[in-house]
Design a protein that fits this description.
With about 475 residues, this protein is an alpha+beta fold. The chain contains nine helices and 17 strands. The longest helix is centred in the first third of the chain and has 17 residues, at about 30-45.
């Protein structure tokens, strides 16, 4: 196999005209990333590599934190990086560097090749199948730089913090408000002729405050995150919500140990979907460390659950036209009627399992959990009596058995409405049963991350308290 960059191959349509310089936003221009990628593949071929792949990337960002109206930190990042993977037959070596100088590139490739020569053969190692590489690459509208200077960021941070403190006189302290913008760019190339890359952006505003009443203190926060600045919640709204969430937790009580229905607020429900993704991802499956081992085609959720992967969602947090190996991503129904239709696999894990890649090298893309008709208030009314979880603490998930036990805080619900806040409790169950015991999914969908899901009502869990 010839380890040379074929710019006419899959993904080449993404390349801008040669000679495009840095526009001042990034350390180098796009053409430099492409030149370095091509140079790496050529160097790999010169070392005797039978195949090679590389990712050349850069990122810039600014983060400003304000606390008690004063600037606490101003942080800038301006980074570059190169990762190189070299294959000699089915021996694999990897190395990385942040130095774009020719000598450093050459040395990094040579280190990767040296590692490969002294590594045991792995029959499943290698690049992705050329037939699966992305060819028609859509524009997913992922890059929206935010021209926000430090003074403007400070102003927004102060506005968020002031809005939080104004909610209730019992909001007595603050952990600060952060306003951050970030942009990144990468080029991935391999010796099967793929070369592609693009720019992305992600910005966020967050605020956390502390309330006190009767000597007891509580803390809560809120944040907004988006690809484009115009999709962010206003800073004052972020602060106000943080203040409201903190104030409502004051005078929290402990519960007696019991069993009852539980609602996971939308912002917490995403963690349950994360547990599912981990359990049906390639690494967990081929290591046989998953509670959903051999579950393909089986009922793993309640029949009302439908989960779709949408990698081409415009401006989506988890959107990508191709995965970390250059494999084209496609929309698919991962779960239909509670039945698992597919795993999350890259080429390596797929080969280990005797299957085909699903375009998930690097992880899942946007997961859309189909919402029901009820908002959060309606879900609580449907539950009647039980627990609303608004925060989970610690890890407490056994990936092999599915046993689930985490510290939590939230609200006790009586007659379908919130009665009082609760703290210092532990929620416990088994994810296999929890998934099948889902009674309803709310329409209050949290879209800030790559898992879009509303609040989830589960029929019964154990609550450990006093």
């Amino acid at each position: 196999m010839t380890a040379s960059l074929n710019v006419a191959g899959p993904g080449a349509a993404m390349r801008p005209p040669e000679g495009v310089p840095s526009d001042g936003r990034f350390p180098v221009g796009t053409a430099t990333l492409e030149r370095v990628a091509a140079q790496i593949l050529a160097e790999a071929a010169a070392t005797g590599a039978t195949a090679a792949e590389t990712e050349v990337s850069q990122a810039v960002g600014q983060s400003v934190t304000v606390r008690k109206g004063e600037v606490e930190t101003v942080t800038y990042n301006r980074d570059k990086g190169i990762s190189v993977t070299v294959y000699i037959g089915q021996r694999r070596g990897h190395a990385s560097t942040a130095d774009f100088a020719d000598e450093s590139i050459r040395a990094t490739v040579q280190k990767a090749a040296a590692i490969a020569r002294f590594t045991a053969e792995d029959p499943f190692a290698g690049l992705a199948d050329p037939d699966r590489l992305a060819r028609d690459i859509p524009d997913l509208d992922l890059y929206h730089p935010w021209d926000l200077d430090v003074d403007q960021a400070i102003e927004q941070g102060r506005a968020a913090e002031a809005a939080a403190l104004a909610v209730d006189r019992r909001i007595v302290n603050t952990e600060g408000a952060t306003v951050a913008r970030g942009e990144s760019e990468f080029v991935y190339a391999n010796s099967n002729g793929f070369a592609g890359g693009y720019r992305t952006s992600r910005h966020h505003i967050d605020c956390a405050v502390v309330g006190e009443d009767g000597g007891a203190m509580q803390r809560d926060f809120w944040y907004t995150a988006a690809r484009a600045p115009e999709d962010l919640q206003p800073a004052v709204d972020v602060g106000r919500i943080a203040g409201e969430r903190t104030a409502r937790r004051l005078n929290a009580r402990r519960l007696a140990t019991t069993e009852c229905p539980v609602v996971f607020e939308a912002s917490e429900a995403g963690d349950l979907i994360g547990c599912f993704v981990s359990a049906v991802s390639g690494g967990s499956l081929y290591r046989k460390s998953s509670f959903l081992l051999d579950s393909l085609g089986q009922q793993v959720f309640a029949p009302l659950v439908h989960i779709r992967e949408e990698p081409h969602l415009v401006r989506g947090r988890g959107s990508a036209p191709f995965d970390n190996e250059g494999v084209a991503t496609t929309a698919r129904d991962v779960v239909s009627g509670g039945v698992l239709n597919g795993y999350f696999l890259g080429s390596y894990s797929a080969r280990k399992l005797g299957m085909a890649t699903t375009g998930n090298a690097g992880g899942s893309h946007n997961l859309i959990v189909e919402p029901g008709q009820d908002d959060l208030a309606a879900l609580l009314a449907r539950m009647g009596r039980g627990l609303l979880i608004t925060e989970q603490l610690g890890q407490g998930v056994n990936p092999v058995t599915g046993d689930f036990s985490r510290g939590a805080a939230g609200f006790w619900v009586e007659d379908g409405v919130i009665a009082y806040p609760v703290e210092e409790i532990t929620i416990a169950g088994n994810l296999k049963r929890m998934f099948r015991d889902i009674v309803a999914i709310g329409r209050d969908v949290d879209t800030r991350g790559s898992r879009h899901v509303g609040s989830i009502l589960i029929d019964r869990m154990t609550i450990a308290g006093e």
